[in-house]
Amino acid sequence: MPASHSVPDAVAARLELFLAERRADAAEYGPDGAAFIAAASATLVGGKRLRASFCRTGWAAVARRADARTTESDALWDLCAALEIFQSAALVHDDLIDNSDVRRGMPAAHRALEGAHRAAGWSGDAEAYGRSAAILLGDLLVAWSDDLAEQAIDGHPHARTVRAEYARMRRDVTVGQLLDIAEESAWSVHPADEHAERALRVASLKSARYSVEQPLVLGAAFAGASAEQIAALRAFGHPVGIAFQLRDDVLGVFGDAAVTGKPAGDDLREGKRTVLVARARAALAPSARTVFDEMLGDPGLDDAQVASLQATITGTGALAAVEEMIADHAARADRALAGAPLDNAAVGELRDLARAATTRTR
């Protein structure tokens, strides 16, 4: 059975109601505070709504197994929307940490705030203001996410389970982000053959769990899932999430800027220590690895240098190996749904979502 509403449309409607209340609150903050609220709201425009889709389908897999006629509630859509606000918070902080200038083809939040400082003719360092304000912007979005999640589960019979999973998601992402930035320095003191395993740990905590597994479990818990149903959804969601992140790693190196909305080879300039990079380094001779390491993480890489690194990664067989890993994880996830005590139509939707997440081009 298809969703009763389009996920993006339903989430957008609940976000607009929530944001209208936040804008009303901003009246007492003065014009600068109101502009800050508007900047936070602007980060919620667009996106694939992947996490909301997995949350809603996790709910459907359980709720419609019990009653095929049940429909989505405003509270469920609020939970889905809360995940999208949390995603915006993560992106604001991620772009700041990575010194990324662009997000979805537009200035990243810290650059937009920097531009607003200049446009207003304020004194002082506009770039420093943009970075400081973006930290607070991300924090505000995390608080908004919590506010809306609590609104969704207020008085709900499974509120405790949902709240615990939501808290775990926040912790996992925060630790995963730390491990991600730590690896950009820590790699140098660990053998090359350990790098892929370390990168997979980052992928699990920073992306796989909160992008797929935890939204699925949150939706299922909201529907009152059994331990068996939760286990099946975790067994499906985690490998899909890993495949999703591996695809993201490929796009970060080989993606088309016109499609991804970010400069081609951005991960190379940022020095991301992904599984793709780890597999490439492990296959290089020591002299070639030295050259590779000298180039990786240089923010001034030009197009020719990016192309050279791309060719090196491809030539080592790392790209083919990661594509095989993506296919293997997707197949493992598909097997996890076989015979699971879940609604059949929702299982079909989960398989569609998995394909979209692992074969995407942006």
From TrEMBL:
Source organism, top-level taxon: Bacteria
Gene Ontology terms, MF aspect: metal ion binding; prenyltransferase activity
Record key words, sorted: Magnesium, Metal-binding, Transferase
Keyword hit for Hydrolase: no
Pfam families given in the database record: polyprenyl_synt
Cofactor entry: Mg(2+)
GO biological process, one term: isoprenoid biosynthetic process
Gene3D superfamilies documented for this protein: Farnesyl Diphosphate Synthase
InterPro entries for the chain: Isoprenoid_synthase_dom_sf (IPR008949), Polyprenyl_synt (IPR000092), Polyprenyl_synt_CS (IPR033749)
Presence of the UniProt keyword Metal-binding in the record: yes
Family: Belongs to the FPP/GGPP synthase family.
Protein name, UniProt field: Polyprenyl synthetase family protein
Organism: Microbacterium bovistercoris
Organism phylogeny: Bacteria, Bacillati, Actinomycetota, Actinomycetes, Micrococcales
